[in-house]
Design brief:
18% strand; 6 strands; single chain; Rossmann fold; 6-stranded parallel sheet; alpha/beta
């Protein structure tokens, strides 16, 4: 069993994030999925960024820190898209994290990576928010820092392909992602 902190995308805490947390709990993991905004989720990406701008990154990160305060030091840090940046930010403060799980986004740099840190990335191919050259540079930097990195690319779906409530959704890619995520967590 793993302890997992699962951070939402820029949309906010959507049903897809809650369903993902429930899926992980059903597999025996302890999961927190905090609402970093404290208000209803946005309906569009643009509205999500406006909400983030209004609430402020500092407030979002303070809420994330509060959400993980009672988790063991070895908890897995995970995020959806923008939530990957939150997870990566907390990694610098939680050097004993059991892993970094990135869904729909690259985030953070090698400065917080300890040698051997398990990192798993799930990304659409192509991904409109993550250009291939940036993914390649990030992957080289993470590997050079010693991360035990596994990258999964999913041809065809849109950016947030695991969210059944938006047009990006791809059922087959989503199911394969969750199978791989559960295998990753079972090893922590």
């Amino acid at each position: 069993m793993s302890h997992v902190a699962l951070f939402h995308s820029v949309y906010g805490l959507r049903p897809a994030v809650l369903a993902a947390a429930d899926r992980l709990r059903a597999a025996g993991h302890e999961v927190v999925a905090p609402d970093l905004y404290g208000e209803p989720a946005a309906g569009t990406v643009d509205d999500g960024f406006a909400l983030l701008d209004r609430i402020g990154r500092d407030t979002v990160l303070a809420r994330a820190r509060a959400a993980v305060a009672d988790l063991p030091p070895g908890a897995v840090l995970a995020g959806f898209s923008f939530g990957c940046a939150v997870a990566a930010e907390l990694l610098a403060e939680r050097p004993d994290a059991a892993g970094l799980l990135l869904l729909h986004g690259i985030a953070g740099g090698p400065q917080a990576v300890r040698p051997g840190l398990p990192v798993q990335l799930h990304l659409a191919d192509p991904d409109e928010y993550e250009p291939q050259e940036e993914v390649d540079a990030w992957q080289r930097a993470m590997t050079a820092a010693g991360a035990d990195l596994t990258v999964f690319r999913y041809p065809g779906p849109g950016h947030l392909y695991t969210d059944p409530d938006i047009p990006d959704y791809d059922a087959a890619a989503a199911e394969l992602t969750w199978e791989r995520v559960l295998a990753f967590l079972d090893g922590r």
